[in-house]
Amino acid sequence: MPKQFTTVGVGRLLKEWKEEDFAASLWTTEIPLAVAGFNYGRFKKKEVTDSETKYAIEGYATSEVPDYLRGFPGNLTPSRLTENAMVEAQNSVRLFTQYFGEAPYGRLAITQQPQFNFGQSWPTLVYLPLSAFLDSTQRWMLMGGDAFRFTEFIQEVTPHEVAHQWWGHMVGWASYHDQWLSEGFADFSAGLYLLWTESKPDKYLKYWERARKAILDKNEFGLAANDAGPLWMGLRLNTRRTGGAYNRLVYPKGGYILHMLRSMMYEAQTKDQNFVVMMHDFVKTYYNQSVSTEDFKRMVEKHITPNMNVDGNGSMDWFFDEWVYGTEVPSYAFNYSLSDDGDKTVLKFTVEQSGVSPRFKMLIPIYLEFDGKPFQMGRVFLVGNLKSKEFQTRLPKRPKRVLINAEHDILASQVSVNGK
Ligand SMILES: [Zn+2]
């Protein structure tokens, strides 16, 4: 490399030296890596070791702006936020270690690349877009109204790319059919990051609402990405009339599928434990292997919970047929009333599922809201276009309101509560 540049490779740096006008470096790895890449630039390096995971987090950013931004008014210093990006990476590694199990690499280099709108992940190495290193004022100066849209991309790009250390690198995908196990899982992981790092759930809920719209909003041909076909078709989803359907399904719908599984496995007592145990097992079982959708389905069946076992045969075919190999999207109408009975409150409710085929099955979660927080009370199981019987239950305390699908637990077209 010309000697003014620093090279950042995958694996571990063994040595660096100069030869005349060139800089050379040698990289090695003790564990197999499926792919290798590198970045280079006039980088300033920062480094921290995370006390919890013992991961070394390195940040590489340039204080120069790329040619296409030269002469722009204001003082653009894209290295200023390196520490922010490093903190996000550190928190991502911690969270994903808890949820998915330990990563073996021990190191993660967060490096800047000059384009604005994409990131990429290699084992031990992440490219983050320049935009992730600018603060909101700088982004506003550069992009005006587009800055808002970008703010969402930027808050998701670091956890998404860090999640690829697990999804794509530790666990690969068998064919284009199975790429949602990488991109969808990385999108799911970015949502999880928003849930655990933000004090309020707003960003998390908006994240899933944006995903829902990306999947279901119609384009100029009157077609939603979801109309292009099952996400299992992967890259073949992109057609002249459904351009971008790959990006709108394999990423957010893939994320939704894992999100729906997590929701079904959630229990009030043990929270995410069922899901966490399954994900750890998945990563351990398929470490350094390419997995297929059917491999993942078998893993879900291994960890099936009683309420997910709707056919009584331990099979998750019903769920995968609907969401991975199918395109159906249900709507729900929820009607409820609360009345006082002495010191208790009586809740009566019905749930109606519509817009689906007669065999479409789903577990619909019901939430009670106390002190601004929804708590899952239970789930209603429905098959086909059907209104449930009227459920009645006595509650020790009056909830502020009763909700269904409060955490976007199901990818739904429409959800109405008491007719609204
Ligand atoms: Zn990705």
Describe the structure.
Helices cover 30% and strands 27% of the residues. The protein has helices at 82-100, 136-143, 146-163, 180-197, 202-216, 245-249, 252-265, 273-285, 293-302, 317-323, and strands at 6-9, 12-19, 22-28, 38-41, 43-49, 56-62, 107-113, 120-122, 125-129, 171-173, 289-291, 331-341, 344-354, 361-370, 373-383, 386-387, 391-395, 401-404, 415-417. The longest helix is centred in the N-terminal third of the chain and has 19 residues, at 82-100. With 420 residues, it is an alpha+beta fold. The protein folds into three domains: 6-165, Zincin-like (2-Layer Sandwich), CATH 3.30.2010.30; 176-323, Neutral Protease Domain 2 (Neutral Protease, domain 2); 331-417, Immunoglobulin-like (Sandwich). The protein starts with 5 loop residues before the first strand and ends with a strand. It contains ten helices and 19 strands. Strand 12 (331-341) and strand 13 (344-354) form a beta hairpin. The structure holds zinc ion. The site of zinc ion has 4 residues, from helix 4.
